[in-house]
Amino acid sequence: MTPAARAQAAIEILDVILDGAPAEAALIRWSRSSRFAGSGDRAAVRDLVFAALRRRRSLGALGGSATGRGLILGLLRAAGTPPDELFTGHGHAPAPLTVAEREGGRDPTPAEALDLPDWVAQRLAAELGPDLPVVAEALRHRAPVWLRINAARTDASQAAGMLSRDGIETQPATQCPTALRVTAGERGLQSSRAFRDGLVELQDLAPQIACAAVPLAPGATVLDYCAGGGGKALALAARGASVTAWDASPARMRDLPARARRTGATINRAPDRGPDGRYDVVLTDVPCSGSGTWRRTPDAKWRLSAEQLDSFPATQLQIMENAAQYLRPGGRLVYMTCSLFAAENQGVISRFLSAHQRFALESSLSQRPGAGEASPDGFFHAILRDLTGG
Ligand SMILES: C[S@@+](CC[C@H](N)C(=O)[O-])C[C@H]1O[C@@H](n2cnc3c(N)ncnc32)[C@H](O)[C@@H]1O
Question: Structurally, how many domains does the chain consist of?
Answer without folding.
Answer: 3
